[in-house]
Write a structure and sequence with these properties.
The protein has nine helices and 25 strands. The protein folds into two domains: 2-103 and 233-300, FAD/NAD(P)-binding domain, CATH 3.50.50.60; 106-230, FAD/NAD(P)-binding domain. The chain has a five-stranded parallel sheet, covered by helices on one side. Helix content is 29%, strand content 26%. The longest helix is centred in the last third of the chain and has 19 residues, at 282-300. Bound molecules: flavin-adenine dinucleotide. Residues 3-8, 29-32, 35, 38-39, 41-42, 73-74, 100-102, 120-124, 148-149, 152-153, 236, 268-270, 280-283, 285 line the site of flavin-adenine dinucleotide. InterPro entries: FAD/NAD-bd_sf, FAD/NAD-binding_dom, NADH-Q_oxidoreductase, Pyridine_nucleo_diS_OxRdtase_N. It comes from Falsiroseomonas stagni DSM 19981. Residues 2-289 form the FAD/NAD(P)-binding domain.
């Protein structure tokens, strides 16, 4: 039973389509038939891609893998009875379970955020929300959180809505915290050059219908607020009885198995890798996909699973929304149209693998 059509499970289905697992019935239980690929979402917002170019038809992918697709929401796991509960029907039994259900927005900490901000997560709900936003474009938009997703979304909105005021609210952490200084300063210059205002040095204390309140600085009037801060663990995981970290994400060992379980795996944003902290990034889930596929096959065939060894560094390419990108790897930074060409090529190749007939 695969729960969630996230970035790792699409690879598992792809591999099971190429090389079936004899004697096993595979079920994909996921909330949406079309799973968005996060790498292309800012490009969709900017108008560089159509929505369908960034969506993976997981129902079709499941069919190619000989798997049953249940488009429904998992609501709980009964580990003793080995069953997954769901919102729209009877619980389903499993022998082997894998969870790739992503994260939820981190809106609970800030008063008013849940009521007034548009969260970027979960990403399967993002496109309908953005469609509604862009149908009646606001004059002043704030994007709270200046990690990679917040930066890309602010720049994409700038490209899509040239007349709007776009403010990136970076708080005390600043723009792209944790990234190399050279990239941070290049991105800050790119934001300024594209007239994206940057609000820094003070954290959001409250979200109102009319804008943002801060700890020290004056309120910022806005017509729409997008919430791009860190990820929170989906609440339903708390009831599963699976081991969780302090933030509520599912703890997994080096083989991506839930701690203390031989029959449950978890990957991507919903998982917390015990051996070392990993960012909540699509690239991590993508890299875990082949290891997960191999380990599910191993356990199904009575063999021992193998370890996932995270890369120490990887290529990060940020879309600037206008057919240019900035990239960094091993501390080096490069940018321009060539960087966008590379990002576009990587993303299209990724999608071609899973969208294929
Ligand atoms: C705008 C934006 C741009 C981003 N760009 C990048 C980028 O360029 N590079 C990068 O590395 N990261 C990027 N990220 C981060 C990236 O989106 C996440 O880290 C990534 O999506 C995590 O993948 P995942 O497989 O864990 O989960 P997801 O991709 O979130 O997939 C979760 C799946 O589980 C399903 N699901 C959820 N709950 C349930 C349930 N209860 N029952 C059944 N199904 C369920 C969902 O429908 C979905 O199919 C971006 C994020 C945003 C918001």
């Amino acid at each position: 039973m695969l729960v969630g059509g996230g970035h790792a499970h699409v690879e598992v289905l792809h591999q099971f389509a190429a090389s079936p697992l004899p004697g096993w019935r595979i079920t994909l239980l996921t909330r949406e038939a079309m799973s968005p690929y996060s790498g292309m979402l800012p490009g969709v917002i900017a108008g560089l891609y159509r929505e369908d170019q960034a969506l993976i038809d997981v129902r079709a992918l499941a069919a190619r893998a000989g798997a049953e697709a249940l488009i429904d929401r998992a609501t709980g796991i009964d580990l003793a009875a080995k069953r997954v509960h769901r919102a729209g029907g009877e619980a389903r039994p499993f022998d082997l379970l894998s969870l790739d259900t992503g994260a939820t927005p981190d809106t609970a900490r800030i008063p008013g955020a849940a009521a007034h901000a548009l969260p970027l997560k979960p990403i399967d709900a993002l496109l309908p929300r953005l469609r509604a936003l862009l149908a009646a474009p606001p004059a002043r938009i704030g994007v709270v959180g200046a990690g990679a997703a917040g930066v890309e979304v602010a720049l994409a909105l700038r490209a899509r809505l040239p007349a709007a005021t776009v403010v990136l609210v970076a708080g005390t952490a600043g723009v792209l915290p944790g990234f190399p200084e050279t990239l941070r300063s290049r991105v800050t210059a790119a934001l300024a050059g594209r007239h994206v205002d940057c609000h820094q040095g003070d954290d959001v204390a409250e979200v109102f219908a009319e804008g943002l309140g801060f700890a020290r600085s004056p309120p910022l009037p806005l017509d729409a607020v997008l919430w791009a801060t860190g990820a929170a663990a989906p609440a339903w995981l708390a009831e599963t009885g699976l081991a969780r970290d302090r933030a509520g994400f599912l703890r997994v060992d080096d083989c991506l198995r839930a701690i203390g379980r031989d029959d449950v795996f978890a990957v991507g944003d919903c998982a917390s890798f015990d051996p070392l902290p990993l960012p909540k990034a699509g690239v991590v889930a993508v890299r875990q996909g082949p290891i997960l596929a191999r380990n599910l096959r191993a356990v199904a065939e009575g063999r021992a699973p193998g370890p996932y060894r995270p890369q120490k560094d990887w290529l990060v390419l940020l879309s600037l929304g206008d057919g240019r990108a900035l990239g960094t790897r091993n501390g080096l930074v490069a940018g321009g149209r060539a960087a966008w060409w590379l990002k576009d090529r990587i993303d299209r190749r990724f999608m071609a693998k899973y969208q294929g007939a």
